[in-house]
Write a structure and sequence with these properties.
alpha+beta; Neuraminidase; 4-stranded antiparallel β-sheet; 21% helix
Length: 168
């Protein structure tokens, strides 16, 4: 009986070492995409809150001490104009982009108010979104088609996530 137990333990240990060895051999160091990362480093002094939407990168970039929302077309490696979005009296907090780059969801601070917004690029319009239950939005995430928005919300000292279906 004891022999069977030791045999299964040694088989398990051998399997563990084999799996660990294969996992260690298969590891590669992750490397940034060279040309694109060089461009990103040159275009802003810092970036945070990256969000990918197929061929689009949305982020909060810091340029000359001021943060703004920036959308980059990854194919052309060029920033895309966002008229009416970046206001000098607002501080962006979080951003997300739909897969086709048409919609950007964002949270920003303006006049001591935290706002949840939806920006439509083709219209150049900003729409304020109201939460059904009062709270302070913090982070946003759009689904690929840009039809469902997940919002992290602070309510009564705890964090909630609201899922919001957006109109087309």
């Amino acid at each position: 009986m004891r022999y069977v137990h030791l045999l299964s333990l040694s088989t398990w240990f051998s399997s563990f070492l084999l799996c660990f060895g294969l996992a260690a051999c298969g590891r590669e160091a992750l490397r940034p995409i060279q040309g694109l990362n060089r461009f990103l480093l040159q275009s802003a002094s810092s970036r945070r809150e990256p969000a990918l939407g197929r061929r689009w990168l949305a982020s909060l970039s810091n340029e000359k001490g001021r943060e703004k929302i920036e959308l980059i077309d990854l194919r052309s490696r060029r920033p895309v104009p966002l008229p009416g979005l970046n206001r000098p009296d607002a501080q962006p907090i979080s951003v997300s982009v739909s897969a086709n780059g048409e919609r950007l969801a964002l949270v920003r601070q303006r006049d001591d108010q935290t706002e949840l917004l939806l920006y439509r690029r083709s219209l150049g319009s900003v729409q304020r979104l109201e939460l059904s239950a009062k709270g302070i939005p913090r982070q946003v995430s759009l689904d690929g088609p840009g039809r469902i928005l997940a919002v992290q919300v602070s309510r009564d000292g705890r964090w909630d996530v609201d899922l919001i279906r957006l109109s087309i």
